[in-house]
Design a protein that fits this description.
This protein is 61% helix and 10% strand. Strands 1-3-2-4-5 form a five-stranded mixed beta sheet, sandwiched between helices. It is of the alpha+beta class.
């Protein structure tokens, strides 16, 4: 005669599966049918158990994904934090490093831009690294080429100006618009345009795309905050909380 599990024991058994799954093959057909009926009745009486199990599964998956991200960041630390070509803003000597993979035509990157700026200003001890990651078509690619060419031709300060202008730019990205932008900032438009499709620019963009692929980054904005991946838009206050948590753990 089969001995039925109490609801409490049954709940534990369900939450522990599949690690210690019940062996239904050892039961007779009638015992299996009775057991299934008992399980169904219990779950109908206690549907919160299902949500508890789902929540536990999601928590375990999130922890596994976070651990995998941390390992990927460690494996690619040099390319992320010291590639020799990415623009560095904020406090270059800051104790926390924030890396942003961004696309100038990405709506959420534009939404994130003032949040990142607010974080840098309110904290004062964060180093920002920008990774040009154009993934939304030709206009995105041309914008990144123009920004990187500006950095090579005119330096970091000019790049920062162009970066800010391109994030806010709403028109068509064509040669006329880019020349007007460069001239408005007092930059040498001819020199920048001539550099946009240079081997160095193509190499930088390929390295950024290859790095993103290794990190399983497929969307923008994506942030790497020290050893943690933050996928998508986050307001400044949430990023600030994560920064403080990381400082507290040191």
């Amino acid at each position: 005669m089969m001995r039925f599990l109490t609801p409490a024991v049954l709940a534990v058994a369900l939450l522990a599966a599949p690690a210690r799954a019940l062996d239904l093959t050892a039961m007779t057909e009638s015992e299996r049918a009775a057991f299934r009926a008992e399980v169904r009745a219990y779950l109908l009486d206690n549907p919160e158990i299902i949500m508890e199990a789902v929540g536990l599964l999601e928590q375990r998956q999130a922890m596994a994904e976070a651990a995998a991200d941390t390992a990927l960041i460690a494996d690619n630390a040099d390319a992320l934090f010291d590639d020799g070509h990415s623009w560095v803003g904020g406090n270059p000597d800051g104790d926390i490093t924030l890396v942003e993979f961004m696309d100038y035509r990405c709506g959420f990157c534009r939404k994130a831009a003032p949040e990142v700026e607010a974080l840098l200003k309110s904290d004062g001890n964060i180093r920002l690294i920008v990774k040009e990651f154009p993934i939304l078509g030709e206009a995105s690619l041309v914008s990144s080429q123009f920004a990187l060419a500006t950095k090579e031709v005119a330096g970091d300060a000019a790049y920062a100006q162009v970066h800010e202008a391109l994030i806010a730019f709403k028109g068509d990205v064509d040669e006329v618009a880019l020349r007007r932008l460069a001239n408005g900032l007092g930059l040498d438009a001819d020199a920048i345009m001539a550099q946009m499709d240079s081997p160095d620019i193509r190499r930088i963009l390929k390295e950024n795309h290859d790095l993103a692929k290794r990190l399983n980054i497929s969307g923008t904005p994506t942030f790497v905050l020290e050893d943690e991946m933050l996928r998508g838009y986050l307001p400044a206050d949430q990023m600030a909380q994560i920064v403080e948590q990381k400082r507290a753990r040191r």
